[in-house]
Amino acid sequence: MSLRNFDNIPVMRKPDESPGFYLNKLERLIEEKYKTKFNNYWEFHKWTTDHLSEFWSEFWDFTGIIHSKRFDEVIDCTVPMSDFPEWFKGAKLNFAENLLKFRDNRTAIIEAGEDKEPRYITFAEMYEESKLYAAAFRKFGIKKGDVVACYVSNRPEPLFAMHATASIGAIWTGALPLFGAQAVLNRLKQVSPRILLTIDRFPNDREEIDMLPKIQEIVNNLPSVEKVIIIPSKKESKLKDISNIRNSCFLDEFLKLGIDEKGSIPEMEFEQVSFSHPVS
Questions:
Q1: How many CB atoms lie within 10 A of CB 28?
Q2: For the chain, how long is the longest CA-to-CA vector?
């Protein structure tokens, strides 16, 4: 598939609603509840900034945010924004639980790349993949507050891993795969990740980028990393020797941790954390 030819990729979604449908719906809801009238968008915008607590409370309900405990207070408006006031104080929720609320057969992801045919992943498939990653992470010992790092090209696997990480209450971080080893080390040494998810190689505008030498240098200088998970970009990638990369294995080997003795995968458990708990 050509990098610049996406003629064969179908449109993923064509909104049936007119532009601004949901914004207008929220606007009408607020007009009715608060006995006010907005003549244009900017009047509505001004109301939202003058009534922060009311607006964001309505937005929370309007968007159907999944939570186990509702907030006690949206924001303390006596605290200046420059002092970073706490938002949605008292709330308990999970970011990944909200991202994975759809589990049907609609298309969630279309993966396309220079050296592969398009791949379609449904919401149901995305949940099942994320569930497997989460089970493997938990079996490995990842817990709330741990850091999982990503050093991967644009693929679905990091998305599954991010969902899994957030479901546990762990923290997700990453670096662009075109970064050199030292740039990645400068970033990751600040957060001490326990797991590094990466890939053996990837194409970039018809240039082959070999990741393994960079990964070896990074891991040799990042003692916090307990496991390096390498996504094989092609079937033949698994024939590569990765023995010189400390604590490394290919992705499918690691994911076996998530499958129990009966061959099943535990359902995802979504750690309930505060709204201000770091996601990444």
A1: 11
A2: 69
Contact 211, 233 (CB under 8 A): no
For the chain, how big is the Rg over CA atoms in Å? 22
Residue 50 tokens read as 């003058």
CA distance 97 to 279: 13
Burial class for 104, CB neighbours closer than 10 Å (0-12, 13-18, 19+): exposed
Give 54-66 pLDDT, tens digit per residue: 999 999 999 999 9
How far apart CA 171 and CA 178 sit, in angstroms, is 22
Is the pTM above the cut of 0.85? Answer: yes
**Termini Cα distance of the chain:** 33
pLDDT tens digit string along 130-157?
Answer: 999 999 999 999 999 999 999 998 899 9
